[in-house]
Protein backbone atom coordinates (compact mmCIF):
# COMPACT_ATOMS: atom_id res chain seq x y z
CA UNK A 1 0.00 0.00 0.00
CA UNK A 2 2.84 2.38 0.83
CA UNK A 3 4.52 1.66 -2.51
CA UNK A 4 1.26 2.39 -4.31
CA UNK A 5 0.97 5.67 -2.40
CA UNK A 6 4.53 6.62 -3.38
CA UNK A 7 3.89 6.00 -7.06
CA UNK A 8 0.56 7.84 -6.99
CA UNK A 9 2.25 10.90 -5.45
CA UNK A 10 4.73 10.84 -8.31
CA UNK A 11 2.27 10.20 -11.14
CA UNK A 12 -0.80 12.13 -10.04
CA UNK A 13 0.48 14.84 -7.68
CA UNK A 14 3.70 15.48 -9.60
CA UNK A 15 6.20 15.11 -6.74
CA UNK A 16 9.56 13.92 -8.06
CA UNK A 17 11.30 11.25 -5.96
CA UNK A 18 14.82 11.82 -4.69
CA UNK A 19 17.58 9.21 -4.53
CA UNK A 20 16.66 8.08 -1.02
CA UNK A 21 13.02 7.77 -2.11
CA UNK A 22 14.13 5.23 -4.72
CA UNK A 23 16.11 3.33 -2.07
CA UNK A 24 13.01 3.28 0.14
CA UNK A 25 10.88 2.03 -2.76
CA UNK A 26 13.31 -0.84 -3.27
CA UNK A 27 13.08 -1.67 0.42
CA UNK A 28 9.27 -1.59 0.24
CA UNK A 29 9.50 -4.01 -2.68
CA UNK A 30 11.67 -6.37 -0.60
CA UNK A 31 9.13 -6.22 2.23
CA UNK A 32 6.30 -6.89 -0.22
CA UNK A 33 8.08 -9.87 -1.78
CA UNK A 34 9.01 -11.40 1.57
CA UNK A 35 5.68 -10.98 3.29
CA UNK A 36 3.72 -11.56 0.09
CA UNK A 37 5.37 -14.92 -0.56
CA UNK A 38 4.76 -15.91 3.02
CA UNK A 39 1.11 -14.86 2.89
CA UNK A 40 0.32 -16.19 -0.59
CA UNK A 41 1.67 -19.68 -0.06
CA UNK A 42 0.57 -19.73 3.61
CA UNK A 43 3.54 -21.72 4.77
CA UNK A 44 6.39 -20.67 7.02
CA UNK A 45 9.70 -19.91 5.38
CA UNK A 46 12.77 -18.41 6.94
CA UNK A 47 14.07 -16.53 3.89
CA UNK A 48 10.87 -14.59 3.22
CA UNK A 49 10.73 -13.17 6.75
CA UNK A 50 14.43 -12.34 6.64
CA UNK A 51 14.12 -10.58 3.27
CA UNK A 52 11.28 -8.50 4.69
CA UNK A 53 13.32 -7.77 7.84
CA UNK A 54 16.35 -6.61 5.84
CA UNK A 55 14.09 -4.48 3.63
CA UNK A 56 12.49 -2.89 6.68
CA UNK A 57 15.85 -2.22 8.32
CA UNK A 58 17.32 -0.70 5.14
CA UNK A 59 14.21 1.39 4.61
CA UNK A 60 14.27 2.65 8.19
CA UNK A 61 17.91 3.68 7.88
CA UNK A 62 17.35 5.51 4.59
CA UNK A 63 14.15 7.17 5.89
CA UNK A 64 15.98 8.30 9.03
CA UNK A 65 18.80 9.70 6.90
CA UNK A 66 16.26 11.58 4.78
CA UNK A 67 14.49 12.87 7.90
CA UNK A 68 17.78 14.26 9.22
CA UNK A 69 18.34 15.99 5.86
CA UNK A 70 14.88 17.57 6.06
CA UNK A 71 15.60 18.76 9.61
CA UNK A 72 18.97 20.27 8.65
CA UNK A 73 17.85 21.56 5.24
CA UNK A 74 21.22 20.64 3.79
CA UNK A 75 21.64 18.51 0.65
CA UNK A 76 24.07 15.94 2.03
CA UNK A 77 22.76 12.81 0.28
CA UNK A 78 25.73 11.08 -1.40
CA UNK A 79 23.45 9.16 -3.79
CA UNK A 80 22.72 10.78 -7.14
CA UNK A 81 20.95 9.26 -10.12
CA UNK A 82 22.70 10.94 -13.06
CA UNK A 83 21.89 14.34 -11.56
CA UNK A 84 18.21 13.89 -12.40
CA UNK A 85 16.93 13.37 -8.86
CA UNK A 86 15.86 16.36 -6.77
CA UNK A 87 17.40 17.26 -3.44
CA UNK A 88 16.43 14.76 -0.72
CA UNK A 89 15.87 17.53 1.83
CA UNK A 90 13.34 19.21 -0.48
CA UNK A 91 11.61 16.00 -1.62
CA UNK A 92 11.21 14.70 1.93
CA UNK A 93 9.83 18.00 3.19
CA UNK A 94 6.59 17.77 1.17
CA UNK A 95 3.65 17.66 3.56
CA UNK A 96 1.12 14.85 3.38
CA UNK A 97 -1.71 14.86 5.93
CA UNK A 98 0.18 17.48 7.91
CA UNK A 99 3.49 15.64 8.26
CA UNK A 100 6.62 15.63 6.07
CA UNK A 101 7.06 12.60 3.81
CA UNK A 102 10.31 11.78 5.59
CA UNK A 103 8.40 11.39 8.88
CA UNK A 104 5.91 9.08 7.16
CA UNK A 105 8.81 7.01 5.84
CA UNK A 106 10.32 6.60 9.30
CA UNK A 107 6.93 5.63 10.75
CA UNK A 108 6.10 3.10 8.01
CA UNK A 109 9.47 1.37 8.16
CA UNK A 110 9.45 1.35 11.97
CA UNK A 111 6.09 -0.43 11.96
CA UNK A 112 7.32 -2.90 9.33
CA UNK A 113 10.55 -3.52 11.23
CA UNK A 114 8.60 -4.24 14.41
CA UNK A 115 6.27 -6.54 12.47
CA UNK A 116 9.16 -8.42 10.88
CA UNK A 117 11.25 -8.57 14.06
CA UNK A 118 8.46 -10.37 15.91
CA UNK A 119 8.21 -13.01 13.19
CA UNK A 120 9.18 -16.53 14.32
CA UNK A 121 11.43 -16.99 11.27
CA UNK A 122 13.59 -13.99 12.15
CA UNK A 123 13.84 -15.21 15.73
CA UNK A 124 14.99 -18.63 14.53
CA UNK A 125 11.74 -20.54 14.97
CA UNK A 126 11.27 -21.65 11.34
CA UNK A 127 13.42 -23.63 8.97
From TrEMBL:
Q: Gene3D superfamilies under this entry?
A: DsbB-like
Query: How does it sit in the bilayer?
Result: Multi-pass membrane protein
> What biological-process terms (Gene Ontology) are attached?
protein folding
Principal localization reads membrane
Sample GO molecular function, one term: protein-disulfide reductase activity
Supply one GO CC term from the record: membrane
Pfam families on file: DsbB
State where the protein is found: Membrane
Q: Where are the transmembrane segments?
A: none
SUPFAM superfamilies of this UniProt entry?
DsbB-like (SSF158442)
What keywords sit in the KW lines?
A: Membrane, Transmembrane, Transmembrane helix
Which InterPro entries does this entry report, sorted A to Z? DiS_bond_form_DsbB/BdbC, DsbB-like_sf
What name goes with this protein? Disulfide bond formation protein B
Taxonomic source organism = Acidihalobacter yilgarnensis
Amino acid sequence: MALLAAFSMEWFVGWQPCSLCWVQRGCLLAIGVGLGYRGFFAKPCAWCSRVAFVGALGGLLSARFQYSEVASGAPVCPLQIAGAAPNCAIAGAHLWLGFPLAAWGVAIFLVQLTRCATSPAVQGGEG
